[in-house]
């Protein structure tokens, strides 16, 4: 569990008004002082995330959030906005409310909204050492309620047991190679080591693919792009699949035979984290852009940027050369609102390895709502390097979708 990336853990978000007992509840659930507890309202500011193993549910990321009513000043409003974003991407919600008090109109409205979202929700009634208000017993019909005493810990085991019962209701991400290989297959990985690569480590998508190869009882060959020719010639069997870093597409295409199945780490993660078909459709809509489009590059993490950074240098340069010379680019890590998104003509997402599938699907839903087309790094680079539709051959549905497009031009090299 300690080595499971946060983006791969089930997200349990603890939500409620100020001083409802959220932080005390989190501390009891984790068996540690993870969150600061104080009778002063608004003690929790930024969301606090801690991991715990929960039996059948697996590794879980528990997020303690600021109270949704912490909006008395500008800073408090920012806190509530962050809490709200965590709620939207949660796999499971623990709605915390004092059991001895009547439900507020906000609490009633929020639980009704959660019911419409069809998320797994548990209503946690804190202060169970006191008499539970009759209105709270009738509160939030349709949701299971668990009474908890944060002071003694009574009810915590019932809460954890109820959480584990959600195991079959939580949509789990597919693995990177799920459905693409079989036990005994050979998988070839091409992993350039450039200036942006972390020192003495591999990037997360590469690590996850390697682990998936082992989990699926496959074999693996791995090489840097300048070693690929010698590596491929030495193989006794043809790889069932070759996976490359998107930035090495041009070099890899020249070395591997044209009938070798080939895709990229980023395209694998477009399928794993989001909606590959949506990103493929976004390639088609490049032709619709105006002469001077506003393009948003949307990343999921912050990192030190090098001179050849993919999001701020490589992709903008290729875009201006192959799509629209007058394109203006903006880079963000936060997801804009639908109103803000309408200020852009196109969005290019990163691979999403540091975010959850729920978060990526939320981004795609916002793009659909705003009618803004988009794709991801891997699909755009494959198109720009002339590797589409080849890089989609491992995915029959999306490959057929791409073939159905009538394109006015197709770049052949970059």
What is shown here, in short?
Residues 177-274 form the Hydrogen maturase F dimerization domain. The protein is α/β, with parallel strands linked by helices.
What are the main properties of this structure?
6-stranded mixed beta sheet, 14 strands, 3 domains, single chain, Rossmann fold, alpha/beta, 414 residues, 4-stranded parallel beta sheet, 15 helices
The largest sheet, given as strand count, sense and whether it forms a barrel, is:
6 strands, mixed
Instruction: Look at the structure and give the mean pLDDT.
Output: 88
Unreliable runs: none
- Give the number of DSSP strands: 14
Computed Rg: 24 Å
Assembly type of the chains comes to single chain
**Strands in their spatial order, largest beta sheet:** 2-3-1-4-5-6
Number of domains: 3
CATH top level of the largest domain is Alpha Beta
Individual helix count: 15
CATH structural fold name of the largest domain: Rossmann fold
Indicate the proportion of strand residues.
15-25%
- CATH architecture assignment name of the largest domain: 3-Layer(aba) Sandwich
Helices and strands in order, then pairings?
Layout: E1 10-16, H1 22-30, E2 48-53, E3 59-64, H2 74-88, E4 92-98, H3 105-117, E5 121-126, H4 134-138, E6 144-147, H5 156-164, E7 186-190, H6 204-215, E8 219-223, H7 228-234, E9 241-244, H8 249-255, E10 262-264, H9 265-273, H10 276-284, E11 294-298, H11 310-322, E12 328-332, H12 338-341, E13 346-349, H13 357-370, E14 374-376, H14 377-384, H15 396-403
Helix pairs in contact: 10-15, 11-14
